[in-house]
């Protein structure tokens, strides 16, 4: 996903739970580049996130898009929201997810030993998703905010 950004997931890798108290993320989400802040990193040209399952014990997502340099992005994730790291297909990044109330916490581990913690929340009307990211790398801490709109 722009897993290198936030998603840094991201992009954006992102998975969600569907318990009654948790928002549903099943559907298609488009990155709103103009409303997002990539923390000094170049903005991707486009990102489309598709969530096909959002149960807390079984969820799946795919990301398709174009990064800032014009390279196509194709990533996918299948796992659980149990805090166990699982590889994101199409990248060298591992991700773990866990619910804290109605906020999904997403963590990334990269081969260069950089890590990201992303807090994913939803608007009350369910039309917008916000990913607030903190990344720790050899260069220091960076912060980013990505806004996705439901299609």
Provide keyphrases for this structure:
151 residues; globular; ten-stranded antiparallel sheet; Lipocalin; mainly beta
Strand order of the largest sheet: 4-3-2-1-10-9-8-7-6-5
Biggest sheet: strands, sense, closure? 10 strands, antiparallel
Order of helices and strands: EEEEEEEEEE
Shape: globular
- Beta-strand portion reads over 45%
Secondary-structure arrangement, i.e. CATH architecture: Beta Barrel
Identify the quaternary structure here: single chain
The helix tally amounts to 0
Overall helicity = under 10%
Radius of gyration: 14 Å
- Got a strand count? 10
Question: What is the CATH topology descriptor?
Answer: Lipocalin
Write down the CATH class: Mainly Beta
- Spatial separation of the terminal alpha carbons: 18 Å
Number of domains: 1
Low-confidence stretches: 5-20
CATH superfamily: Calycin beta-barrel core domain
Q: Which class do the helix and strand fractions yield?
A: mainly beta
Q: What's the pLDDT, averaged over the residues?
A: 87
